[in-house]
Amino acid sequence: MATVKQKTKREKPPVTFNWEGKDKSGNASKGSINAESVSTARALLRKQGIMPKKVRKQTHSMFSSHNKPIKPLDIALFTRQMATMLKSGVPLLQGFEIVANGVEKAKMKQVIHDLKSDVNGGTSFAKALERHPKHFDDLYCSLVNAGESSGALETMLDRIASYKEKMEKLKAKIKKAMTYPIAVIVIGLIVSAILLIKVVPQFEAVFSSFGADLPAFTLFVVGLSEIAQDWWFIALIAIIASGFIFQKTHEKSQKFREFLDRTVLKLPIIGKILHNSAIARFSRTLATTFAAGVPLVDALDSAAGASGNVVYEKAIHQIKNGVSTGQSLQNAVTMTGLFPPMATQMIAIGEEAGSLDMMLDKVASFYEDEVDDAVDNLSTLIEPMIMAVLGVLVGGLVIAMYLPIFQLGNVV
Fold first, then answer.
1. What is the pLDDT of residue 337?
2. What angle separates helix 310-324 from helix 254-265, to the nearest 10 degrees?
3. Measured between alpha carbons, how far is 245 from 256 in angstroms, rounded to an integer?
4. Minimal CA–CA distance to 13: which of 137, 83, 104?
5. Residue 323, CB-side half-sphere exposure with 13 Å CA sphere
6. pLDDT tens per residue, range 262-315
7. Distance, CA of 123 to CA of 143 (rounded, Å)
């Protein structure tokens, strides 16, 4: 007799309703209440002795935090809160409910309620997480599965939370290093474009009344201005199209990603930061997974995916192949030629002492500190360079416009 599998109906998260009515004393009153529907909200209010007149679903503007997408930091916070709940003796299902009540983002609230509904229906926590691959990757799910199997879920969640917090902090540092100079230069180019299209033509009209030859530098800038006025729209479309093509090529072409990642690793200052960041990610991920009892070969798979650079990803797969054939981790790492002697020696000590996870954790902490220091130094070093670039772009345009006026003054 065939068994029919019944789908577990996921419960809907409670909705916030604003209400207006009268309290027990007959005085006008208003407030908000969480309920699954308008009728449920009215019933709950009557139980409290309130006679509701209006009950409406609370709306949020499209720019409010309520409608924002789920970010990795939201997942890290959720993990930390769940670990705290379980360590405090709160049951898993009740922990979901408590954490969901404190979440503002509707999408995150929905995910938590889906997890609660799945677990309540008999699904394991790890399997429930696998139904949301966009927010919980394979590494996260496998670690939770290991925690459930060993009966130490709260400890594993605490370890995952620490891992994700450190990884997000590292990503933020790299983003800061890459974004700051690019943003300032882009602003400088936009200002220069506005001057060329709007301001220079005004000066050009004045210069035409002089009846004298203009300096070569001024003529050059006027020529740039004419090109900018005639072609700015096409240039804008070309920039947008180039950005779109770049993004799509980066998503679909493995060779292009490898070329790009290899190129940025060779850049001065930035390249060293990215090298140290990849080593820190590799070490942190491997330390976390290995300490959780994940076999080294499987842990290397997770570390490859978390490296953040195709060059290091290929190197880590090479390490995995070496370890699979019986090679020591230290020798396999050394063979790639990407890891500095300090990292390989620490790995060797960890292998010999049987404390590989501890040594990898120390390697990760060291290179995370290196990234922190390098980014701080980069901000200090790059500010004068940015000011010089802006000075050349904007100051050059201003000087070109005032040169004819200075020459006219000398003639007078």
1. 87
2. 100
3. 12
4. 104
5. 19
6. 888 888 878 888 888 889 888 888 888 888 878 888 888 888 877 778 888 888
7. 16
Cα gap 7→122, rounded to integer Å:
11
Angle of the 296-306 helix axis to the 270-291 helix axis, nearest 10: 150
Give the model's pLDDT for residue 19.
Answer: 78
Q: Please give the model's pTM, rounded to 2 decimal places.
A: 0.67
Cα–Cα nearest to 134, from 90, 72, 177: 72
Distance CA(23)–CA(30), nearest Å, equals 9
Residue 60 — φ and ψ, nearest 5°? -130, 145
Angle at Cα 270 formed by Cα 266 and Cα 276, nearest 5°? Answer: 85
User: Distance (Å, rounded) from C-alpha 304 to C-alpha 310?
Assistant: 9
Q: 112 with 129: CB under 8 angstroms?
A: no
Q: Residue 20 corresponds to which tokens in the numbers above?
A: 């207006």
Q: Which residues contact 252 (CB under 8 A, 6 or more apart)?
A: none
Q: What DSSP state is assigned to residue 67?
A: G
Q: Are 289 and 303 in contact (CB under 8 A)?
A: yes
CA dihedral 206, 212, 218, 219 (to 10 degrees): 110
For the chain, which ranges sit under pLDDT 70?
1-15, 58-67, 208-212, 407-412
What's the confidence (pLDDT) of residue 3?
Answer: 41
CA dist., res. 307 & res. 271, Å (int): 15
How far from 204 is each of 20, 190, 225, 401, CA to CA, in Å? 65, 20, 10, 8
Q: Residue 255: CB partners within 8 Å, gap ≥ 6?
A: none
| Contacts (Cβ under 8 Å, ≥6 apart) of 27 | none
Backbone angles phi, psi at 268, to 5 degrees: -65, 145
Spatial contact of 225 and 203, defined as CB atoms under 8 Å apart: no
Q: Which pLDDT belongs to residue 407?
A: 66
What's the confidence (pLDDT) of residue 4?
A: 40
Tokens coding 239: 């920039």
| Helix (H) or strand (E) run with residue 56 in it | strand 51-57
